[in-house]
Amino acid sequence: MPLSEDIKKVLVIGSGPIVIGQAAEFDYSGTQACEALKEEGVEVVLINSNPATIMTDKEIANKIYLEPLTVEFVEKVIAKERPDSLLAGMGGQTGLNLAVELYDKGILEKYNVKVIGTSIESIKEGEDRELFRNMMNRINQPVIQSEIITDMESGKTFASKIGYPVIVRPAYTLGGTGGGIANNEEELEQILALGFQLSTIGQVLLEKSVKGWKEIEYEVIRDSFGNCIVVCNMENIDPVGIHTGDSIVVAPSQTLSDKEYQMLRSASIDIINAIGIEGGCNVQFALDPHSFEYAVIEINPRVSRSSALASKATGYPIAKVAAKIALGYGLDEIKNAITQRTYACFEPSLDYVVIKIPKWPFDKFQGADRALGTKMMATGEVMSIGSNFEAALLKGIRSLEIGKYSLEHKKFRELSMKELKEKVITPDDERIFALAEMLRRDYKINKVAEITEVDKFFIEKFKSIVEEEQRLRFSRIGDLDKEWLYKLKKKGFSDKGIADMLRVSPEDVYKLRIIWGIIPVYKMVDTCGGEFEALSPYYYSTYETEDEVEVSDKKKVIVIGSGPIRIGQGIEFDYASVHCIIALKKLGIETIIINNNPETVSTDFNISDKLYFEPLTEEDVLNIIEKEKPNGVILQFGGQTAIKLAEFLKEKNIPTLGTTADQIDIAEDREKFDELLEKLKISRPKGKGIWSVEEGLEEAKRLGFPVLVRPSYVIGGQGMEITHDEKELIYYLSNAFQKDKKNPILIDKYLMGREIEVDAISDGEDVLIPGIMEHLERAGVHSGDSITIYPSQNICPNIKEKILEFTKKIALGIGIKGMINIQFIEFKGELYVIEVNPRASRTVPYISKVSNVPIVDIATKVMLGEKLRDLGYGVDIYKEPELVSVKVPVFSTQKLPRVEVSLGPEMKSTGEVLGVGKTIYEALYKGFVAANMFISKTESTILATINDHDKEEFLPIAKELYNLGFKFVATSKTARLLRNAGIEVKEVRKLNEEHPNIIDVIKNGEVDLVVNTPTKGNDSKRDGFHIRRAAIERNIGVITALDTLKAMENVKIKGIDHEELDVFDLAN
Amino acid sequence: MKAKLILEKGTTFQGNAFGYLKDSIGEVVFNTGMTGYQEALTDPSYYGQIVTMTYPLIGNCGINLEDMESKSPKVKGIIVREKCSLSSNFRSELEIEDYLKQNKIIGLEGIDTRALTKILRNNGTMKGIITLEDVSYEEVKNKIEAFSNREAIQRVTTKEKYVIEGSGKHVAIMDFGMKQSIIRSFLNRKCKVTVFPASTNAEEVLNANPDLVFLSSGPGNPEDLTDIIENIKKIVGKKPIVGICLGHQLLALSLGGKTAKLKFGHRGCNHPVKDLEANKVYITSQNHGYHVNMMPENMKVTHINLNDGTIEGMKHNSLPIFSVQFHPEACPGPRDSDYIFDKFMEYAL
Q1: N or C terminus of chain A: which is more exposed, having fewer CB within 10 Å?
Q2: Are both B69 and B200 inside the same structural domain?
Q3: A255 at the B interface (CB within 8 A)?
């Protein structure tokens, strides 16, 4: 059936800010869906609060609303735009929940909007535990038996019914503690007792244990005519018990015979038929490794992280096909985008192995509890493609950017076998390295498989890598012969990995490869195992005979992507990479992208002329460059991942477009940069290196407190802190020197001023500043974590003049051609520079959207030699828009046990939302609402614990809030302060005092907001840390910067409410 | 041990031999199934063929005694990118290389199977040799060209007629190299089956008075099987006839249709077939090098292949005759079209 006639205008709901568990994959699927809809002549109205996405570009949708993803605001958009249909399954769980809510509240009916794709009834059937379980029982599909238990007796009864062992999961525990596996009634009694106590609502979920079973996923598609296909199946290397988002996953399954494969395939199809899916669906199974017994874990009746992975693993565009199905097409009517000759109604056949490895944020969160479990903690992932398992795995490992090029991890060498065993039994992000170390010491393969419950097949593969590593370790480079090196390369060993083992440089191995002619060939990802001629320009490297890439002699440019999503380098960089490609394409230049992130738009093979799905290491990138011989390589849009390659490419005489490696070095090298600023007579807070606590104290005395301290060897905010007095400074310094005696600590005067940020483009003669952004929180909060306002509200004209002057001086002084990002502090009427990044920054997408300046497009043209003056957007500071936009950061700290919550110089946020309004207050309101941190109740209770430095500043804010109707709860000191000021306050006991104390107040939900200004971050032993964690885990907002609280108070005073607010279409 | 594959036009791939180390000649084909190597190895339809697996890792689950489609592997050889010597699956009983060695079949690993697949795709299936000797194409050219698979059916059909009792309909199976899963599919429907050798004459089959005659799958070119075609003609109109794969092609020829060789065949688990009557698409298991390219009179197409539009099923306008080109018995491959056996049963008297 062709396009349904009555679908003319479709509302697509995005997934909102990037948080753990909901990342860039929904930008990829949403963008694909919007394009598929537009292709059919359907008008697309998009709502998403996340400004860093490509889907919110005017090229992608017809109408774009960067508005909060709440029923109220979506209704406003519906009322204004009157779409006839809603496509629900593209915006992750957020989009799905919102669609259900709109339906349940009768809003869809009110505006006559019909849901296309999977119906709301079907969504509910897939999502609601009870409905789903009933359905599975009806169609004879086994599910994991579980029940919510509130008392010991019924727990014991249920456990004996389903049989031991059982998993105990307390609901809402602090820190995810208290669960466990009970092997018998005695153990159950113990764990349950603790579980009831720990659960804030006295509730525990009892579940039949399938721990150690294989976790297998199927990505399925069904059309409205009942045609079903399986796009891909995937096997989690980590067994059931570790969230699939935290598991290493391989596609297709490796240890399933046809019988098991088809058994689960048939089950998936039976399930989606019964539920009535119309579009994509993910089905997860637990499979007993010793029998045909299996159980359905859950389904996701929408596109998902797994569907994005499956799309990239197979070349099958799931979201696009799902969108077409929603419009009424049958699978047999949709063309296969890769072959252009066959139809979407077939099942991809892979002739390679795909591995996904999660990227965890533990490098940023040193104190975090790294143990993996049923709650996902990874912020992103890498995917790798190889001709064999080992190659895919090693490519994946080096794509992670954790400095690992083999399975060897030095830190595990120190551990005893017993310690290693402990490590692999309680898995964390580094388990694979611990496991490899055990194998290196000849621990039995069968036993490793037994204690880790990782299939022996995979252990054997790890072992074969370790054996080669050991052989290398006991060899010299002279022992390498052509055959051995070829074998190593075939198995995915990197030059660096080999060189490290042989104690030579990668260059030495590279030279041997060139002499022996061992260079990779590139194979195509074509969905069909080579059966049909394919047109997909999607490649991966392997060491085989035939190369399938046709190298053109056209003018071409390689764009280096930004790799996995991590804190500090998120989806914004994919946005910039994609826009750079689009700009190059428009100029008629052949575009090639290299990237390894399966979640992103940039790795959709439709975006560039060629996609190389490869690690972003020196060797892997060089191989492609040597093959393609591009006219230039662009590094500015791929974040630090790409910038890191600058020096290497320079050594290899490979032209980079725009800013050169030497120029990048000026900005990145502290000394050179200081020299430049000195020359330009631009002031910056001068850091001084100190080597001892005493020296630090002396310096601090000279500078005057507060002082900013940080390790000298890190870029960005890692390990940075503000200390307010001698005690804090001594604490910080003694800790820091204990950890690392070899490097100095840098100490700066902390300027408690206004932080200002610009993204600018320079062509070497002029600069264009699309917008000056003002940070709401004063300096000291990482720019990625502060609320950013554009256009700036409090910067006077002469400071703006100065900003332009400084930007020009720095950009021209360095010799920037392309993007530059500069952060300033305005302190007592003076402007200081605090940081310069010679590349696109996090704020580029948002500023592009609200200023209407296509920043990446202009920067790309400038990099190719065009002049700003000819590009139509003028030079200097671009005119300010009428609407005010506020970027509000969004955090995932709730999902990371034992991670500090309070804001500081280290970045912690994973995503951001935008609030757009006619005034700053409207924008702030929307931003707070979109970030889900606004306190809308009128009589809310605030728990306040304020440190001594902030008390004076806190009092007037508290007074205002009190006058607005807020109530206060506080511990003795803060309570006294408030009481003295005439504010009624309920006093609670401190953390270490008897119950009920401050933690109980939080646990019992007696407060709506916690305002806690920390004495010192990163110290998990302190009360404040526990208070903040308790609140965040109980879903209670935490504000740690008084500037944020003040802003919220101002919005409250203005009495802004969603009722009177407009929604704005940013595309027109 | 080093070995190479030499194709009939001279293309050579260098790899390593495993299994039974003896040269072997056959028709080189490729199979795109990601699972089911054991079923493929033992499927008699592959008799005379050297099968290239496009999925790179083969042997991961070993070999078990339950999933055999016939008593022994029928291929002339198997070509893989990488064989697994340390299988892992709860039912694994033998490693693939040992199984091949015991059954005197050579394997070739370590070649660029994708490059080979593309050659077969672009030039059509070709004869070839897996050889352990360091010979040139010229030296083996004649050997390769002399290879013929005309006798295939005699090698794979049952030697003796046999009966498996059942309480339901009586199905007479003409065994041209049948897969065990086909029998299982009938037995699951409580059928009594009588399996006849391929050369059994029509009278003997009719004398058994079956409710349904089933023409099985099997290897080779249907046009070579003139005696069998004549036999089938004698059954037409007397008993309901259904068939799969080669049986389907033989039925077409018996009724006056034509068959032809496909360039590189359909071998895999992912072929979309549209049931024109139900207007629904099923993903099917396929394994054939020939197809019906001209329909007999009075027959209509019931199924088509969505990839290339070839005929995948047909039925007679008035007589109880129905056949499909794909493999509804699956094994390997999707079980989505199991309903075809129910349809077969509707034809039974």
Answers
A1: C
A2: no
A3: yes
Same domain, B103 and B188: no
User: B314 and B209: one domain?
Assistant: yes
Which of B8, B39, B69, B329 is an active site residue? B329
Domain boundary among B149, B174, B202: B149
Question: Is a pLDDT exceeding 60 seen at residue A175?
Answer: no
B269 is catalytic: no
Q: What's the topology of domain A9-116?
A: Rossmann fold (3.40.50)
* pLDDT 10s digits, A985-1007: 999 998 888 888 998 898 888 99
- Active-site option among B61, B84, B191, B245: B245
- Fold classification of A146-208 (topology level): Dna Ligase; domain 1 (3.30.1490)
Q: Which two tokens stand for residue A957?
A: 């804010």
CA distance B280 to chain A (A): 6
| Mean of pLDDT over chain A | 92
CA A564 to chain centre: 8
B63 to chain A: closest CA residue: A257
Q: Among A815, A459, A799, which residue's Cα sits nearest to residue A667?
A: A815
Alpha-carbon distance values, A688 to A674, A711, A746, A949, B270 (Å): 12, 11, 5, 25, 66
Asked if residue B253 lies in contact with residue B229, where contact means CB atoms within 8 angstroms, the answer is yes
- Please determine, for the modelled complex, whether the ipTM score is greater than 0.95: yes
Mean pLDDT of the A498-504 span: 97
Q: How far apart are CA B349 and CA B346, in angstroms?
A: 8
Residue B245 is among the residues annotated as catalytic for this protein: yes
Specify the pLDDT at position B156.
96
Tell the residue number behind the tokens 């010192």, with chain if given: A1016
Question: What is the DSSP secondary structure assignment for residue A73, as one 8-state letter?
Answer: H
Residue B89 is assigned to a ligand binding site: no
Q: What's the CATH code, domain A935-1052?
A: 3.40.50.1380
CATH classification of A127-139+211-348 is 1.10.3720.10, yes or no? no
Residue A1017 has pLDDT above 50, yes or no: no
Pinpoint the residues of chain A covered by CATH 3.30.470.20: 127-139+211-348, 754-881
The mean pLDDT value for A411-438 works out to 95
3-state class (DSSP) for residue B119: helix
Q: Which of residues 264-323 of B touch A (CB under 8 A)?
A: 264, 268-272, 274, 279-281, 283, 306-307
Residue A1023's pLDDT band (cuts 50, 70, 90): confident
Interface of A with B in 459-518 (CB under 8 A): 460
Residues B68, B29 share a domain: yes
Distance between A270 CA and the closest CA of chain B, angstroms: 10
In sign, the C-alpha dihedral spanning B30, B32, B35, B40 is negative
CA distance A474 to chain B (A): 26
CATH code for the domain in which residue B53 is found = 3.50.30.20
**What domain range is B251 assigned to?**
153-347
What CATH architecture applies to the domain A754-881? Answer: 2-Layer Sandwich (3.30)
B72 in A contact zone (CB under 8 Å): no
Structurally, chain B folds into a number of domains equal to 2
Q: What is the pLDDT of residues A622-681, one digit of tens each?
A: 999 999 999 999 999 999 999 999 999 999 999 999 888 899 888 888 788 889 999 999
Question: Are the CB atoms for A149 and A171 separated by under 8 Å?
Answer: no
* Residue A839 structure tokens: 């590349």
Assess whether B95 and B173 both reside in one domain: no
Give residue-wise pLDDT tens across range A932-948: 988 877 789 999 999 88
Does B329 qualify as catalytic in the annotation?
Answer: yes
Chain A residue with minimum CA distance to B275: A227
Do residue B283 and residue A346 have CB atoms under 8 angstroms apart? yes
Q: Which of residues 641-700 of A touch B (CB under 8 A)?
A: none
